[in-house]
Amino acid sequence: MKAEVQDRGNALSGEALTFTLEENEELHVLHPQQIIAYQGPSSGRADRFMDVKGMYRKRKLIRADMTGPCRFTAALPPGYSVKTVTLDGKDDLLYDFKHLFYYSKGINMQTRVLSVKNMIVTRDVVKVRFSGSGSIGILTEGVVCEAALDPVQPLYVDAGSVIAYPENAVLELTVYGNHLASQHMSYHWKMTGNGPVLFQAGRQNRRFERENDEDGLFKRLLREILPFGGVFIK
């Protein structure tokens, strides 16, 4: 499989990816409505309902199974890009389903039900875990960063910026720093364990631009003076 990013042009209008699949190669696209061009046999695309246990019982999730030889282009939402992650069969990362764009042949998808606390924060019921060897494409906002967990020394990551974390990780929703710092930050995951954590920078970048471009001085003062003003005053 080959994936090419098309000319970005205006970043606000999004970008597109063109995939080229060779004979017998397969790719499962989880947002089939984003496919805007296709070249190949008509039988090379087969949409089907996904059988993902425990996920969105009242929703019908559809994926497009693309089989080579073919070539197709998928549009991405404004502000998003796709990061390809290669799996070797030893991975144990849990992903948000909303971040997944595609996965290749040889990859199996499983679900993990979240705790009630995690459901409230992430507004999701399950995480997705992949097994097998192949590649997956993750929708991200801005640069994707990676940090290694430690069994003792915690890693604090903005809860809304986390893309994936190890299944063995221990998570606690919290804030950190001194009194002023803890009052003016979004909730973070305090994480310990072994393995990498993936997180994105775009969400915070957009917040920074919005606060500096749209906020008046009075609103900025309230956000900085009031306890948890940075959380509740948007």
From TrEMBL:
User: Where would one find coiled-coil regions in this protein?
Assistant: none
InterPro entries in the record, alphabetically? AIM24, AIM24_sf, Trp_RNA-bd_attenuator-like_dom
User: Which top-rank group of organisms is this from?
Assistant: Bacteria
Q: Which organism is it from?
A: Paenibacillus durus ATCC 35681
Q: What is this protein called?
A: AIM24 family protein
Q: Which Pfam families match?
A: AIM24
